[in-house]
Amino acid sequence: MSAAIDGDQQGRVFSRRSAGWEVSQYAVLDASPNAVVAIDEQGRIAYVNPQVESTFGYAEGELLGELVEVLLPARVGERHISHRNGFLSNPVARPMGIGIDLAGRRKDGTEFPVEISLSPLKTADGVRAFATIVDISARKAAESQLAESERRFRAVLEASPNAVLAIDEQGRIIYVNPQVETTFGYDHGEVIGKLVEDLLPARVGERHVGHRNAFIAHPVARPMGIGLDLAGRRKDGTEFPVEISLSPVETADGMQAFATIVDISARKAAESQLLQAQKLESIGRLAGGIAHDFNNMLFAIRGYAELLAEDLSVEPSSELDTAGSLQSVAAITTAADKAAELTGQLLAFSRQQVVSPKVTALNPGIRELEPMLRRLIGENLNLVMKLDPSAGNLMADSGHLDQILVNLVVNARDAMPDGGTVTIETGNVTFDEPYAVEHFDVTAGPYVLLEVTDTGIGMDHETRQHIFEPFFTTKQLGKGTGLGLATIYGIVRQAGGHIWLYSEPDRGSSFKLYFPRVDAPAEATPHPTVSTAIEGGIVMVVEDEPAVRDMVAQLLERAGYEVIAVADGLEAITRASSEEPIDVLVTDVVMPNMSGIDLAERMMDRYPRLGVVLLSGYTAETLNIERVTRRSAIFVPKPITSQRLIQAVHQAAATARAATARATGRS
Question: What is the pTM of this model?
């Protein structure tokens, strides 16, 4: 290319002052940040602005008069001539090469991507075509980087071992990776465009819409459903446990939510197996502990019974050692009481104990127990009481509350051999829905807090993991059965409450017990006095265990009652029809063929003024004793002392006589 311009060429050059153009008008083109080139009807360059030099590397004088194809790659030059002639014959402002990647060529021969806009201008010398040329190298590089980033991002998603899907703001699925097909059983085409709720169990679909809208309104990356068991639904309708993490991504089309879904079926199965193994381990420890303790008690009972039998067989009878015999009897009674206490603890742990709950004020009961608690901990320990005057009432068995306090305080004492402080605290606590969601075993609502804290040796993580298991103890051999905390756990759970332990080695322990708060006044504790004098009357005893049946019959006969003893409910109904009217029915609850509850109902229907005493060691929930206790039947938990049995029969007989008197008075 020559920088010199001959006369003909000079006439073809578009002068900056020809056709009425002024220098000021060129100033606009000269100031453009993009390269601007003008060509005449022969395709020769008639004008270039300063940006052409920085864009293409040519000085102004080098380009004027040259064909515009000099600025294009050689491979497109010939084709471009026809495009240029087509534009000059039909000049209309437009972008050039729509849908085509255009390129420019610099003076050094390098090529670069461009965008070109064409604008025709009619002058005295004919039509001139102005081309605005934008070097889009930076944009193309950015687009290339973005494309590469998107390619890597998609590759990561495609290679993920977990299902990944994206939804738009309407909750419709717009992307799924291959694992979604594997996990949910849908083909790619089947799931795109569906609402995400189609991948969830129907029972949660409607509720999920609200959660989904809330996430889109306030998008924050987070795991979904903390503390909840989440489930997915496959194409065949089967459900499976999942974990889901959500990530919001802002796009040109709006916010999109990416969900990573992990099928945790295998983990759940492993957890279930581990839990089963732990249960079996606990049951083994429980069985071993029961066997050990009961063997000791049975050994004592059997041994003293043999001593007693040996004493009673002495001939002549005048040489009978009465004192020794009574000592054997007392020892047998003590061993039996310990066995009864053990069974009570086991029932409390398993939440199968019969309880007598009533609305109770927590603080007064603690105050009544305070003197005994101070004696229990001794003089080298401090007992601090922080009882909130506003602490509400709860529904509980007052005897159980005393048992809890004594047990926790004794444990605290044993954890502080070198002295320390035991703090008993009460108060009101309210758990809201978010807290309840994060703690799966908590129900939202108001609670009463009972907290016992010590400054003792504390517990490590391993100990805390087992502390509520039956027969697990950190005390020395012979210092405890390991049922205390297991019993407390059972009592609290049976009352509908929750128990949490906070403890660290050398930093003490804090047991926090939460009982559901009730808005009812505390009930007064009755102290009935029932006479044990001989009352007389006919009592029917129904018990399928011969030894128990004979023992109960003898106790009642010695108390002055006439006793009819039978083995089951059917025999009881038959005998009741043929004998004189009975005054009191004493029946075991769990018996073959007919339960004591069914028997009591049928007998009370037939004999409306019959007194009824039920004996059992099972829970009220298991037995459904309300069916008859609301009709004045008396329930007495086993094991039972002779005095308590006779009192119950006296009370039932008195109730029956009162009913008879009322009926006679009306007649």
Answer: 0.41
